[in-house]
Write a structure and sequence with these properties.
Blueprint lengths: L7 H6 L5 E6 L6 H10 L7 E4 L3 H10 L5 E4 L10 H4 L2 H15 L3 E5 L2 E4 L2 E7 L5 H24 L8 E5 L13 H11 L3 E5 H12 L6 H11 L5 E6 L2 E2 L14 E2 L7 H11 L9 E5 L5 H12 L2 H8 L18 H17 L19 H18 L4 H4 L1 H10 L3 H8 L12 H16 L4 H18 L11
Parallel strand pairs: 1-2, 1-12, 2-3, 3-4, 4-7, 7-8, 8-9, 9-12
Antiparallel strand pairs: 5-6, 10-11
Helix pairs in contact: 3-5, 5-6, 6-7, 9-10, 14-17, 18-19
The structure holds fe (ii) ion.
């Protein structure tokens, strides 16, 4: 694979400054409703970053908004996984990104530097990477591989140079984080070895202070000074701003509430302060866009918050100084079959089992990374967040299967039984990630074990749900060959 001619600087130079925009979902809220509302009041976004959706929906949006720059927020490429290349359908995931970015003419494809699947375990929301040198090397190798395949896909279509630039987003923490070096050093190591751009999400940055760094730094601002001195700012192509809030399963606000990244919640003042601090940094030389992330947010709140963002003088100032001095980089080659890769794969498996409460941290392979980990946060994740995720998130089991759930309750079966079953063993990853299908598969298997008399009923009900889901998410475009 020849990556020698690629460089971040060359790729980024092809992307025009996009301005101040919105990161959105096609359906929630309805994207065209939102856009026309903002246009009516004379405050349209300069660009939209659109979350993964079926190609036909993206094509529809592209046709409805001619002339508006569109970029892409990807999902389903598990760049953390040391076995991405050997044991996941990564080629199909990259080809999906290629089709979607082609449909909307996106200059970049943003993906969280986080995972929902690794070690054969699946989650519904993102877990951050383990912060180790080996993990950074793996992410760098995987992202370089994805970029190369995107380049090849567009070249095959007779459009060399039109491939989107892959951006890696600083991930959020949900109550804990594992590893050492710091997250800023982790990204610096990725940037040394891979051609990617980066997305700096200001709310995610706050969660790193809240759940990992608040003992070292008294305030988010103090943490941000240290972070900005190390994070590879010259690679930051986009900045995200979104809300923070309590998880649905959190009952009370403690002295320092356990806020997490929540796109349906308002953006607090502390994040606007952090945004100004980030934008004032002279190292930000490749910035192309600043986006308010608003999927699942009410349109009136979006209107107010977007007005605040548009009127923030620091945004225009930062975008004006862009595209100066972005450096080229060496691209590392990476052997993904050695013992170091196997050790990292074992660590990620242990990670999945520890956070899901199957293994005890101190007795697992992850113990070497346990120093400074928020034990209370880990407990909160395993006992409150994760059960809610498996039961309710992305398809509510209780609502979808009311009579079956009632029967299980009568037998004394609980959601924690479902969690334990889910993580009891790893499973090979064959299909492209779709949490709804994964959830239905696990659910049927679980019923087969705890209440076989309900198996026929659950199979009937899941078949109907699968058919409906397939119709709504039909990717009728031609699948690329897995070569
Ligand atoms: Fe984000």
């Amino acid at each position: 694979m020849d990556l020698s001619g690629k460089s971040f600087a060359a790729q980024a130079a092809r992307i025009p400054v996009q301005g101040i925009g919105l990161s959105v979902d096609v359906f929630s809220p309805d994207l065209l409703d939102l856009h026309w509302t903002l246009e009516r009041i004379g405050s349209p976004p300069d660009y939209l970053e659109i979350f993964k959706a079926p190609t036909r929906e993206l094509t529809r949006v592209r046709a409805a908004l001619p002339g508006l720059p569109l970029t892409y927020h990807a999902e389903g490429l598990w760049l953390l996984d040391p076995a991405m290349r050997s044991a996941t359908p990564w080629r199909q995931a990259v080809d999906t990104i290629a089709r979607h970015t082609e449909a909307i003419g996106a200059g970049w494809a943003n993906h969280e530097c986080a995972g929902k699947q690794f070690g054969g375990y699946s989650f519904g929301t993102y877990l951050p990477p383990l912060l180790t040198d080996a993990a950074a090397k793996t992410v760098a190798a995987n992202v370089a591989l994805a970029q190369a395949r995107l380049d090849e896909w567009f070249a095959r279509k007779g459009r060399p140079g039109f491939a989107p630039l892959v951006l890696l987003e600083l991930p959020p923490l949900t109550y804990f984080g594992f590893g050492d070096p710091s997250v800023a050093e982790f990204f610096a190591r990725i940037a040394e070895q891979a051609p990617c751009g980066l997305v700096l999400d200001v709310g995610h940055l706050w969660t790193h202070w809240r759940y990992c760094e608040r003992r070292r730094f008294r305030s988010p601002e103090a943490f941000a000074v240290d972070f900005l001195a190390t994070f590879p700012l010259e690679r930051v192509v986009q900045i995200h701003l979104a809300g923070l809030g309590l998880h649905e399963n959190e009952e009370s606000a403690a002295r320092l509430p356990c806020l997490i990244d929540k796109h349906d919640e308002p953006v607090p003042d502390v994040l606007f302060d952090l945004l100004r601090q980030v934008l004032a940094h002279a190292g930000l030389t490749a910035l192309k866009g600043i986006a308010l992330e608003v999927d699942t947010k009410a349109i009136p709140v979006i209107v107010d918050e977007f007005a605040l963002l548009r009127n923030e003088p620091a945004c225009r100032r930062a975008l004006r100084r862009t595209s100066r001095g972005a450096a080229s980089f060496p691209v590392a080659t990476h052997d993904s079959s050695g013992p170091a890769t196997q050790r990292l794969a074992d660590l990620y498996s242990a990670y999945a089992r520890v956070v899901s409460g199957q293994d005890v941290l101190g007795e697992s392979a992850l113990a070497s990374l346990a120093e400074g980990v928020d034990a209370e946060g880990l407990h909160r994740y395993g006992t409150r967040y994760l059960p809610h995720e498996l039961l309710r998130w992305g398809g509510d089991i209780v609502e979808l299967f009311p009579s079956i759930w009632k029967s299980l309750e009568k037998q004394g079966v609980t959601v924690m039984d479902f969690v334990r079953f889910w993580f009891r063993q790893s499973r090979p990853v064959i299909e492209q990630y779709d949490f709804f299908y994964i959830k239905l598969d696990r659910w049927v298997e679980f019923i087969g074990e705890v209440s076989p008399d309900l198996l026929e009923q659950v199979r009937r009900e899941t078949d109907a749900l699968r058919a409906l889901h397939a119709e709504l998410n039909d990717e009728s475009a031609v699948q690329e060959s897995p070569a």
